[in-house]
Amino acid sequence: MSTRVPAVTAQVIAIRPGRPLAGAVTVDGSKNAALPLVAAAAALLRPVRLDNVPASSDVQTLLDLLGQAGWNTTHPVGDRHTVLVLPGEATPTPDGLGEAASSIRASYYLVPALIALYRRARLPWPGGCRIGDRGMEQHFKVYEAFGDRVRVDDRGYVVEAGKAVSGTVSLVLPFRSRGATIAAVLRAVVAGTPLRLGQPNLSPEVLGVVKALTSVGYECRAGERVLTLVPPPSVSGDVPVWKVPGDKIEAGTLACAVAATGGTARIEGVHGPDVAPLVAALHRMGIPTIDEAEALVVHGRSIQPTGRPLRAMATLAPGGLDADFEPPLLGLALGFPGTHLFSDPINPGRHSNLVPQLVRMGGEITELSSTECRFTGPQRLTGAGVEATDIRTGSALMVAGLTARGVTTLGGVEQIRRGHADLPGKLLALGADICEVTP
After folding, report:
1. Chain centroid offset of residue 12 CA
2. Which residues contact 356 (CB under 8 A, 6 or more apart)?
3. Is 406 left (phi over 0), alpha (psi -120 to 50) or beta?
4. 113: pLDDT strictly greater than 50
5. At a CB cut-off of 8 Å and minimum separation 6, what does 222 contact?
6. Three-class DSSP category at 165
7. In this predicted model, what pLDDT tens digit does every residue of 280-290 receive, in sequence order?
8. What residues pair up with 295 in beta bridges, in sequence order?
9. DSSP string, 367-389
10. What is the pLDDT confidence band of residue 83, given thresholds at 50, 70 and 90?
11. What is the predicted pLDDT for the residue at 165?
12. At what angle do helices 31-44 and 111-118 cross, to 10 degrees?
């Protein structure tokens, strides 16, 4: 049975090495999966119930934005992890959504829903983690394929619905963008037209949207080369119930933390195949790990380091290593023998956030380029004052702090809260020596 996780709230988190982590915890719903599912529910313009919704701040911001735009969202009494998204009503709101929309990247998911309600969407340029240029060009090409008009300025962008297209909308993405794939799927939902999308992103987050639409009658086929979507001939009056999958990144981060301390723990609530690339990396380092149907089990007490070099290469290819696994895996690999290479060409600014923080803890890491670094382990870090400049940098620094000599103080905790409602609390439940430090 899983341990109930106590809440930890703080401006700064202090971490010290301690005993090996042990026990069982259940991950929250995935922020990265919840955001497009919320947007899909809004685009349908019908009531949808979402279960297992995480309490991370980015998800709450998106729900607040829906409220500003005319939708109603509500929680059942005493159940903050269930959200009912009710159809929007066009209201005389200000032109476009305000400053809150620029605080998260996922605001762009709302474009199809806003087109459905207002026939236009005006949004500020997206914010979120400062991890390099992640442009909107592919999104705009998707909307233009549906006949929409796109205008940009310094403040943001406007997408205006054009003349309705007839027949199947066909386009090929130049690379497997998750955001552009979801944009195409949701725009097809709003247009009520079939979609044929070449070179789609097939991440679990995209497949979660496909599964949700299938449950309300859409015919979806998601292949490595082509994704197709056909609208249903009619719509039932039932309220669909969609469940946000467990957070694979939170599960992977906790697995890295357990392995770093040589502990043994069961991490529940995650779909095993979703973490398979991370498990393969752990096996290569000699960390016995089992991905079950709905759990991840790390047997850190049986670790036999292989000394084999780890090549952790983030990729958008189906079955590849999700870029968000890379930072906590890097924090773990510093303590394992071998000369390891890490690469994240998807988020070109992420290494420039993380590597200097690890160097402050005594890490010896060679930056080969803005997206690649190399180091030889094992290294022993020393606690220091470090900063979570983005969500995944923060989680990686927590992993590193669990084995560093002395105390690591982690600032920028609000960044971690954007993606994880209470990751420090889950570490505490597993026995980590972690506490809040208030100003």
Report:
1. 23
2. none
3. left
4. yes
5. 200, 202, 206, 207, 210
6. coil
7. 999 999 999 99
8. 268
9. E-SSSEEEEEE----B--EEE--
10. very high
11. 85
12. 10
Task: Identify the CA nearest to 403 among candidates 432, 430, 375, 360.
Answer: 432
* Model pLDDT for residues 402-421, shown as the tens digit of each residue: 999 999 999 999 999 989 99
pLDDT digits (tens, 9 = 90+) for 43-81: 999 999 999 999 999 999 999 999 989 999 998 888 889
Q: Which two tokens stand for residue 293?
A: 């149907």
d(CA 275, CA 237): 36
Place of tokens 């991905």: 291
d(CA 50, CA 60): 13
- 194 CB contacts (<8 Å, ≥6 apart)? 167, 168, 169, 188, 228, 229, 230, 231
- pLDDT of the residue at 88: 72
Burial (Cβ within 10 Å: 0-12, 13-18, ≥19) of residue 359: middle
pTM above 0.90, yes or no: yes
Sequence-ordered list of residues with C-beta below 8 angstroms from that of 60, at least 6 positions apart, any chain: none
Buried-state track 290-316, b at ≥16 Cβ within 10 A, e below 16: ebeeebbbbebeebeeeeeebebbbbb
Task: Read off the pLDDT of residues 213-259 as tens digits, 9 standing for 90 and up.
Answer: 999 999 999 999 999 999 998 887 789 999 999 999 999 999 999 99
Name the residue with tokens 């070109």.
Answer: 348
**pLDDT tens per residue, range 321-335:** 999 999 999 999 999
The per-residue DSSP string of 23-92 comes to EEEEPPBPHHHHHHHHHHHHHHTS-EEEES----HHHHHHHHHHHHHT-EEE--TT-TT-EEEEPP----
Q: Are 307 and 278 in contact (CB under 8 A)?
A: no
The single-letter code of the amino acid at 434 is I
In angstroms, rounded to a whole number, what is the distance separating the alpha carbons of residues 25 and 263? 14
